[in-house]
Design a protein that fits this description.
By secondary structure, the protein is of the alpha+beta class. The chain has 4 domains: 2-66 and 627-664, no CATH class; 72-295 and 583-617, no CATH class; 330-417, no CATH class; 441-548, no CATH class. 43% of the residues lie in helices and 21% in strands. The protein has 11 helices and 29 strands. It has helices at residues 2-27, 69-100, 106-122, 127-189, 196-212, 276-311, 421-424, 513-516, 557-564, 584-624, 628-664; strands at 37-43, 47-49, 52-54, 58-65, 215-219, 225-229, 233-237, 240-241, 243-249, 252-261, 266-268, 326-327, 334-335, 344-349, 360-364, 369-374, 379-384, 391-392, 399-404, 412-415, 426-427, 441-445, 460-461, 479-485, 498-502, 508-510, 520-524, 530-535, 543-548. The strands form 9 sheets. Strands 13-20-15-16-17 form a 5-stranded antiparallel beta sheet, with no helix packed on it. The chain has a 5-stranded antiparallel beta sheet with strand order 22-29-24-25-26, with no helix packed on it. The chain has a 4-stranded antiparallel beta sheet with strand order 5-6-7-8, covered by helices on one side. Strand 9 (243-249) and strand 10 (252-261) form a beta hairpin. Helix 5 runs parallel beside helix 6 (276-311). The protein starts with a helix and ends with a helix.
Length: 665
């Protein structure tokens, strides 16, 4: 009797547990991260009798959690990559929409500026046209400021999100440490049986952590899992937890860097982090935000530098050489906070055409040698001060460095030649009469030196063009007279025709109408690099005078040169001093196309990674997910089994009652 009763009770208890497990599955069917469980039943140890082994019923061997660590790892990895690309795409799309927008992008403002410059060239005497040019200059500067502000605002938001993410990672790490501790305690307390719900909780926390940063998990024998980020930084070891923090970037005061703190020390690990939302933010900053803001600044420097240089080669309506139209910010090298030497560094742009959009690092070896590293490609340039200060470097990528004082070993300076330019460029001119539309010098025909009458020959000289303001305006005397003579040397021979130069450089210019009549070019290098050409056949004694242009009223030569800057290749010269390869608008176009291409590629990759994540999640869910139809079927089956076990107990009770009744009878 005891045997059949025990068997019935064992079945009743076993299927009661099965019903509990099924009910637990149904209750958690919508719980995120829950893994389906099942009750594993085995037979009780049979007992031996003289006629063989008799069964003793059933027992619950385990409540099994249906999980696959390989699939879970795939899901975590895919989740990390998907989150990284999704956030990267989100930020890149925001910036791309701004740069490419025809209403708020830079291209329309550049076109309006050069259109206004062309109007001045068409009517150089018009003060209202000049005022319109100054207004368009202000609008262009405002557009530079607006776009740069977008970059700066995104950088601020990125910094804030990095701070928020490190806080979330710390919270998750703390929770994982506690779960590790609880799992180890639960396993130790119940004889190594898995605490399934705690394991689900840990897996859920790991998934949330992987969404924020790429992680590596190392299981331990006691049931705890150690978690590493970056390049081997131990975030969670058992229940011991390290932390992440944010501090101002030691190389860029506008940025932040991630600091890892454990029981040993605190150290910067920004460059070692990848994956997840943190990886997406850092990749966006390195791939698009920093280079893009630098490139925008390069456009500002290219425009302002080219316009200012040409403006200073002209004459305004007041008769003065032109003053700069734009004010460009000075470069401010940033010393590393840990520097101990006495060195200070100043940087100056000397050739905008050779300027790059890269940042630079200057580092000392502790002696006379310093190394300048172009960070975009890590190309290095050696600077030898010889121990003599101040030391001025030769031109490198369009900039020169002046170093005052000796640096100690490891001292560093960070140089960003273009980063601040778009945000700090301003319009310096406020007087429309100051627009230098005229050339500084003019050439006119004079009276023939012999006859006193107007020149009678067919000789012609082009208006002079200058390339610098050296020795301008002309003074002492204020004009240069070119007088043509068949015997320019006056030695009685006719084989040395040319011009006698009175004033300026003096001397003679050889010019033979027979061989040079189609045109010969001359240059006075000491007078603004003055260039002009002579053609035709002058008459004996014909004179030409080069003189200061006065107010230049009606002269539009420099205004045309200013307007022509739009078509000139003034930027992105290759290293080594080769010619510039892109116009101002082409340089901006390269920025727009580069951001657009990276945004498009990121979007494609993000969609692909999300599809892969869904595939892995579906595969894992097919194993671990709760199917309510299946659970309902199991519920009915276990209910019937429970009722059958109860019936066995009822039968045992009836048999027992029958036996008792027989004994009493």
């Amino acid at each position: 009797m005891a045997g059949i009763l025990d068997i019935g009770v064992s079945g009743l208890l076993a299927f009661q547990n099965s019903l509990n497990t099924t009910g637990h599955n149904i209750a958690n069917s919508d719980t995120e991260g829950y893994s389906r469980q099942r009750t594993v039943l085995t037979t009780q140890e049979p007992r031996f009798t003289s006629y063989g082994w008799l069964g003793n019923g059933v027992k619950v061997n385990d409540v099994e959690r249906l999980a696959d660590q390989f699939l879970s790892t795939q899901v975590r990895s895919a989740r990390s990559v998907s989150a990284q690309l999704e956030l990267y795409t989100e930020y890149a799309t925001q910036l791309d929409n701004v740069l490419a927008d025809p209403n708020i992008g830079l291209d329309p403002a550049l076109q309006d500026f050069f259109d206004a410059m062309q109007v001045v060239a068409d009517d150089p005497t018009s003060v209202p046209s000049r005022q319109v040019l100054l207004s368009e200059s202000g609008s262009l500067v405002d557009r530079f400021h607006d776009l740069n502000r977008r970059f700066s605002d995104m950088r601020i938001h990125l910094n804030e999100q990095l701070k928020s993410l490190t806080g979330e990672i710390n919270d998750l790490a703390e929770s994982l440490g506690r779960v590790n501790q609880n799992i180890v305690a639960a396993i130790g307390a119940n004889g190594s049986a898995d605490p399934n719900d705690l394991l689900d909780r840990r897996e859920q926390l790991l998934g949330e952590l992987a969404q924020r940063v790429d992680i590596t998990v190392v299981p331990q024998d006691n049931g705890a899992w150690n978690i590493f980020i970056g390049k081997g930084q131990a975030l969670v070891i058992g229940n011991s937890v390290s932390t992440l923090g944010i501090r101002t970037d030691s190389t860029d005061v506008s940025g932040v860097e991630v600091v890892f703190t454990d029981t040993v020390s605190s150290r910067v690990i920004t460059d070692q982090l990848s994956g997840g939302e943190i990886g997406g933010l850092l990749d966006f900053r390195n791939d698009i935000l920093d280079p893009g803001q630098n490139r925008l600044g390069l456009v500002a420097i290219g425009l302002g530098g080219s316009i200012n240089a040409q403006q200073q080669l002209g004459v305004d309506l007041n008769g003065n050489l032109g003053e700069p139209l734009f004010a460009l910010p000075a470069i401010s090298p940033y010393p590393h906070p840990a520097n101990t030497g006495a060195a200070s560094v100043a940087a100056t742009v000397v050739d905008g055409g050779s300027l790059t959009a890269s940042d630079y690092r200057l580092e000392s070896d502790g002696g006379d040698q310093l190394t300048l590293t172009r960070l975009s490609d890590n190309k290095q340039f050696a600077l030898d001060t010889g121990g003599v200060y101040p030391y001025t470097s030769v031109e490198i990528d369009g900039i020169t460095l002046e170093i005052s004082g000796a640096a100690n070993l490891g001292d560093k300076f960070f140089i960003r030649p273009t980063r601040e330019a778009a945000g700090k460029i301003t319009v310096q001119m406020n007087d429309p009469r100051g627009v230098a539309a005229a050339g500084p010098l003019r050439l006119r025909q004079a009276t023939n030196a012999d006859s006193g009458n107007l020149n009678s020959g067919s000789g012609e000289l082009t208006q002079p063009v200058v390339s610098s303001s050296e020795n301008l305006p002309l003074s002492g005397p204020s004009s240069i007279t070119l007088q043509w003579r068949a015997d320019v040397n006056g030695d009685g021979t006719a084989d040395d025709p040319g011009f006698r130069v009175n004033g300026g450089p003096g001397g003679t210019l050889s010019y033979d109408p027979v061989s040079d009549g189609s045109g010969k070019r001359f240059e006075f290098t000491a007078y603004g690099g003055m260039r002009f050409s002579v053609s035709g056949v002058p008459a004996e004694g014909d004179q030409f005078i080069i003189e200061n242009n006065g107010t230049g009223s009606g002269d539009n030569r420099n205004a045309l040169a200013l307007a022509d800057i739009q078509q000139q290749k003034t930027l992105l010269g290759a290293t080594g001093g080769t010619a510039a390869t892109a116009t101002i608008q082409e340089t901006y176009g390269l920025l727009v196309s580069d951001v657009g291409a990276k945004t498009r590629q990121a979007s494609i990759n993000s969609e692909a990674s999300y599809g892969l994540l869904q595939h892995h999640q579906a595969t894992l869910s097919s194993l671990t997910g709760v199917n309510l139809d299946e659970e309902a079927a199991r519920l009915i089956r276990f209910q019937q089994a429970y009722q059958a076990s109860a019936q066995v107990i009822t039968v045992a009770s009836r048999i027992f009652d029958t036996l008792i009744g027989a004994v009493r009878g």
